[in-house]
Amino acid sequence: MGSLVCVGPGMIVGAHLSARCRSHIVNADIIFSSCHPLMEDWLKALNNNFHSLQPLYGENKNRRITYQQMITRMMSAVREGKRVVGVFYGHPGVFAQVPHQAIAQAREEGFTASMEPGISAEDCLYADLGIDPGAYGCQHMETTQFMIYQRVLDTCGYVILWQVALAGDISLSKRMSSSAERKVLVKLLMHFYPPDHSVTLYECPTLITDTFRAETIPLEKLTEAKLSQVTTLVIPPANRLIKNDVVSAELAAISKHTGDKI
Ligand SMILES: C[S@@+](CC[C@H](N)C(=O)[O-])C[C@H]1O[C@@H](n2cnc3c(N)ncnc32)[C@H](O)[C@@H]1O
Questions:
Q1: Taking the mean position of all CA atoms in its chain, how far away is CA 206?
Q2: Contact present, 116 and 18 (Cβ < 8 Å)
Q3: What's the pLDDT tens digit per position in 142-193?
Q4: 3-class DSSP state for residue 152?
């Protein structure tokens, strides 16, 4: 009986892979991967029945078509009765549609399917930039989704925008959005933040010998900033937390009452 497990090798080649993910990779009948080429070279040494899904991406090709083709490739092997492992860089379930959809489809067809977590860009970001998401709260959004839907930003907490290099690409087929599309993003963000609000462009390295990028610029300069496929935009809080006096009073009353009983 075929099966599917989607695993994440983390962000840094050879340094982030969990023992469970490694075991799935080593014991699989066949591996499909969507990772950085250096990560894929390293993965091939763990299991040589290795197939990269990266060539399915194409210039001006709608990413939805690519994603469907990736699912079809993995599902064909599952239906042939193979133990299939899909390796998706970082965490396979974080800002990654293919693993979620492939697992849902495999389960719908009666196959065993599961996901193993990996270290995502989000995890590296907290470590490298010294951010604790629990300090003020942290909102994560895909940049274009933030742009085309009416979303409420909590400016008292961190806001993290993913795929910022694809900001406003509604064709889903570009490798980089245009400066006109980026200007729309900056204009929208300036409804929430002042133009000189400091934002950070973050990129964690693929190799352990490299360092991360944390470039802080004023929001208004984002249109001209150098972005890549792997850039994540970090927007720190712009406003102080405002106390909710009504709820605080309610909790104080409960606390006093409980205290009376004791
Ligand atoms: C399709 S998502 C994949 C995320 C991945 N599954 C993970 O667990 O981090 C691609 C987006 O993740 C973020 N990302 C990917 N690689 C990154 C890196 N090296 N440093 C910072 N952010 C990265 C960027 O926002 C990028 O546009």
A1: 15
A2: yes
A3: 999 999 999 999 999 999 999 999 999 999 888 889 999 999 999 999 999 9
A4: coil
- Dihedral angle of Cα 72, 74, 80, 81, to the nearest 10 degrees: -140
- Give the whole-number percent of the chain exceeding pLDDT 70: 98
Domains of the chain: 3-115 (3.40.1010.10), 121-235 (3.30.950.10)
Does residue 203's CB lie within 6 angstroms of at least one atom of ligand 1? Answer: yes
Closest CA to 180 of 213, 143, 224: 224
Whether ligand 1 lies within 6 angstroms of the CB of 91 is answered as: yes
136 is catalytic: no
- Are residues 38 and 206 in contact, defined by beta-carbon separation less than 8 angstroms? yes
User: For residue 216, what are the β-bridge partners?
Assistant: 200
pLDDT for 174 = 82
193 is catalytic: no
- Give, as one character, the DSSP assignment of residue 239: S
Side chain identity, residue 143? T
116: helix, strand or coil:
coil
For CA atoms 215, 217, 220, 225, give the dihedral sign: negative
Question: Can you read off the two tokens belonging to residue 178?
Answer: 């245009």
